[in-house]
What does this fold into?
Amino acid sequence: MYFKAKVDKEKCNGCKICILSCPEPNAIKFDPSSKKIEIYESRCKACKICVVICPKQAIELEEK
Ligand code: SF4
Ligand code: SF4
It folds into this structure.
């Protein structure tokens, strides 16, 4: 069992705070077309920083 960050795109407002806070390069990227973020699971280390810092509570850790 392990965990990966998952974004709820209905809640995400594209503020990019999570991108700036994530310690793993390229784990979170901004999608210019949707103006939301994408999380690249293979790079996520489940540190939870983005979960805590998102002002919209748009990210949670998902059990895999
Ligand atoms: S911090 Fe939250 S609201 Fe802001 S871009 Fe990231 S997921 Fe979206
Ligand atoms: S849980 Fe940590 S490593 Fe994973 S996307 Fe969020 S800040 Fe980045």
User: Anything to note?
Assistant: The longest strand covers residues 3-7. Residues 17-21 form the longest helix (5 residues). The mean pLDDT is 98. The helical segments are 17-21, 49-53.
